[in-house]
């Protein structure tokens, strides 16, 4: 409950900051710059039952944003996530390593504020080590974010998302986390 409250406060603060910065930004749309690539660092906090055995998620990702209409992009994203296990009863829980591959849509509600939704698969890189029965998990990720211009076609892309994955084992719990992606984006 405490973690969910903290995440909610963080999300609201991020949204307020984004709207405040947007009010002072130029009116030139970030989505008029063609194909954009980004490389980013990611961190997250497991939620629900997943939080019982795991502390944090660390990883990175590459993403391509391909314009298909005014203010609308198709996204393609691939990355790597490691969920760091807790120590429970003196026993270290083994880390989970996932390789997500997702595609989706990114819509700019304002010149820099966007909403994004992606779905795809996460491949379990260390299935035998963690005793997983599933090697591929269905993944979905709604996100809200903001592009901060740094000059020309370059941006800092900051986003907050919830990412959910189907269970590692049959009849297990879903793996969900709230994450933050901070990326350097550049237009081609």
Describe the structure.
It is a single chain. The chain is mainly beta and 188 residues long. The protein has one domain (2-187): Porin, CATH 2.40.160. It contains two helices and ten strands. The chain has helices at 2-24, 127-130; strands at residues 36-47, 54-69, 72-85, 87-88, 91-92, 96-108, 113-124, 136-151, 154-165, 175-187. Strands 1-2-3-6-7-8-9-10 form an eight-stranded antiparallel β-barrel. A two-stranded antiparallel ribbon has the order 4-5. The radius of gyration is 17 Å and the shape is elongated. It starts with a helix and ends with a strand. The relative contact order is 0.21.
Question: What's the SSE blueprint?
Answer:
Layout: H1 2-24, E1 36-47, E2 54-69, E3 72-85, E4 87-88, E5 91-92, E6 96-108, E7 113-124, H2 127-130, E8 136-151, E9 154-165, E10 175-187
Antiparallel strand pairs: 1-2, 1-10, 2-3, 3-6, 4-5, 6-7, 7-8, 8-9, 9-10
For the largest sheet, list the strands in their spatial order.
1-2-3-6-7-8-9-10
Can you tell me the CATH class?
A: Mainly Beta
- Counted by DSSP, the helix tally is 2
Residues in β-strands, percent: over 45%
Largest pleated sheet: 8 strands, antiparallel, barrel
Number of domains: 1
> How many whole angstroms does the radius of gyration measure?
17 Å
Output mean pLDDT.
Answer: 88
Shape: elongated
Helix content: 10-25%
If classified by CATH, what would the architecture be? Beta Barrel
DSSP strand count: 10
What is the CATH third-level topology name? Answer: Porin
Distance between the termini: 43 Å
Which structural class do the helices and strands define? mainly beta
What string gives the helices and strands in order?
HEEEEEEEHEEE
Uncertain ranges = 1-28
């Amino acid at each position: 409950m405490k973690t969910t409250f903290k995440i909610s406060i963080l999300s609201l603060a991020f949204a307020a900051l984004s709207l405040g910065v947007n009010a002072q930004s130029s009116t030139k749309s970030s989505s008029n710059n063609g194909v954009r690539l980004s490389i980013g660092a990611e961190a997250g906090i497991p939620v629900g039952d997943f939080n019982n055995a795991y502390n944090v998620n660390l990883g990175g990702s590459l993403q391509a944003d391909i314009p298909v209409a005014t203010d609308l992009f198709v996204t393609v994203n691939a990355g790597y996530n490691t969920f760091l296990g807790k120590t429970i009863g003196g026993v270290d829980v083994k880390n989970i390593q996932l390789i997500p591959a997702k595609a989706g849509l990114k819509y700019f509600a304002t010149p820099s504020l966007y909403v994004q939704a992606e779905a795809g698969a996460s491949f379990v890189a260390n299935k035998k080590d963690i005793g997983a029965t599933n090697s591929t998990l269905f993944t979905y990720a709604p996100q809200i974010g903001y592009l901060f211009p740094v000059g020309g076609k370059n941006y800092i892309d900051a986003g907050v998302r919830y990412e959910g994955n189907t269970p590692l084992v049959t009849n297990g719990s879903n793996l969900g986390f709230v994450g933050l992606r901070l990326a350097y984006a550049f237009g081609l």
